[in-house]
Amino acid sequence: MNNPGDVLKKYQCDHIRMLEESFSQTLSERDDVRLFFINENQAFTDGRSIVVDPAIFGLFADEEALLRTAKYLGWPQDILGTTWNALSIITRSLNIHECLHILYSDFPCHCAKDPLCDTRNKKKVMAKISNIIEDSYIEAVGCSVYDNMEFYLRFMRVSQSFLSYSKPKEAISLKDMLSNDGGIIPQKKERTDADRVKDYLAAMCTFLLYPWDWDDECPEDIREYVEKTKQFFLDGAAAESPDERYSYCQKIFEVIKDIIPDDETELDFGELLKRLIGEKTHSNEGGITGDYQSKGKSQKIKYRLFTDLNGKKRKGNIPEDQIVAIRAELSRNQKAVGEIEVDQGYYYNVDFNEVGASAVHQNIEIHENHPKINFDHRKAYKNIYSKYSMNIRSYSNKLQQILKAHVTVREEGYKFGGGITSARLGDPQKRYWYRKLEGTDIPDLAVMLLIDGSGSMYGPRIRSAMESSVILHEVLKSQGIEHAIVEHTARFDEPDIDINVLIDFNFKEDDKLKLMQIQADGENRDALALYWAEKYLARMSQNEHKLIIVISDGLPAHEYDDYLPPVSVKDTANAVHKIRKRGTDIIAISLDNAGEFECYDMLSEIYPNLIACNDLTRLTGQLLGVIVKLLQ
User: Fold this and answer.
1) Suppose 584 and one of 183, 443, 456, 546 were both cysteines; which one would form an S-S bond, judging by CB atoms 3.0 to 4.6 Å apart?
2) Neighbours of 548 (CB within 10 A)
3) Residues 106-149: pLDDT tens digits?
4) What gap in Å lies between CA 477 and CA 474, rounded to an integer?
């Protein structure tokens, strides 16, 4: 087995964090929720941010606890048989728990402003009471309302019972939770209020959240409080609204307030906090990013996580198809992280002869760069996507309508139809007729967007090119149209050009983040970039129709070898002519200032098919218009 610490380090990467953040945004129904990893044995939320520790209490490396948990739950042993699987299930379990709080709990906790909680210790005790009831309620909602969630919720509770942090290789029971190192304190020993209130809360935590450990054994001096409040805990944990649940917390508080010590006594809840898996969600502390207020939804529950509403044990068997789906997801995520770990970016050096360029480029080296993904760009990409989501849907729908052009599909094996297939005349069941049906074809088209990344594009033009690239990628991806997005620049005073392949024809989902690396710097040597693009298209796509869309704001110029107009203009025009003659279409879009056509006039000497754009807000529409025209 791999070293658990090494696996933990690999697991806590940004890719997995973002997967969990995306999951939390979906489940919590809030796209502004943020999720963070820590290693502090905690999991909590302030209502808009979630913090989880995948390594909480060392469970992921506690093989005995995981084995016992799987056996107790009736799971296949292999589901928790690897460190990666354990980390994944622990993290998702904690994430689900906190998401349910965001949906159904009030923030901040009511005890923060409750006049009953007029001392520090009273607030602490009320927060623990609320914690126990809220945890029981949201876990009941999770299994009552949501499909495929009980798997994770049961795991998190049961695994805490088998953790080895208190007694190696033994389950934690109610007795383990009580004072005096896990044993019941003899009554002859003088007991303090601190002992009583800690043992009382430990008992009620076990009663409500770990019912299989409950055995009615508790110190005699708290038994009366336990009996008087049992039903309050049960009723409170089944109450539909946060306000109603807190009213039960207040009833419980009134019963036990005489054993809450003054603030001179420091209450240390020790093992109770482990059983509650942290406390900050229910404390009266400020949020992660400041105070935040939200109202939890009301929801009726059908049963509790481990029992029905009458306290009868409930099996909660997990369907086999869910186990299969979870296995597949765990494997898929681990594979994705492995690919990211290997994919550190790479480049090729390409000679001008390899792309068939003219002799004027013989001393210039082409650097074909496939940059590494920077996951810090995920938020920037998401901002652009969110800003233009309506445009993306609109363009996708328009393109979809065009792609519904009818094509004839011939289906064989009918007993009657529009014609006979002679080769099937021997069929004893006379299924030799065929029919012609209407179908939808995917266009045999490969598109490359070639963006001028020279310094003159700096500012609104490069920003517009970036945003258009995001929209274009999302639209073409949605319709299954092959495409690549490439930026090219020539280095100042050096015999080199850089071809940055941002979206490749065989792109992976997260490659889209590379589009955030588009920048304006250097010069441009368009002819050499076009020769490279032609060869790359031929190598990477088998589609018959190939199109290069060029975005540029000026004439090609590379001062290293005085590759300047008019020589650069003539050379690039020749390149365009040769490439088009060999079967690859080229259409250019010139970027001009508002009301001007200076760039258009210059580029018209190079590109026979040229579209003027002097309104950057129309760039995306013009790009997609080129593709639409070809498909019609």
Assistant:
1) 546
2) 25
3) 998 888 789 999 999 999 999 999 999 999 999 999 999 998 89
4) 5
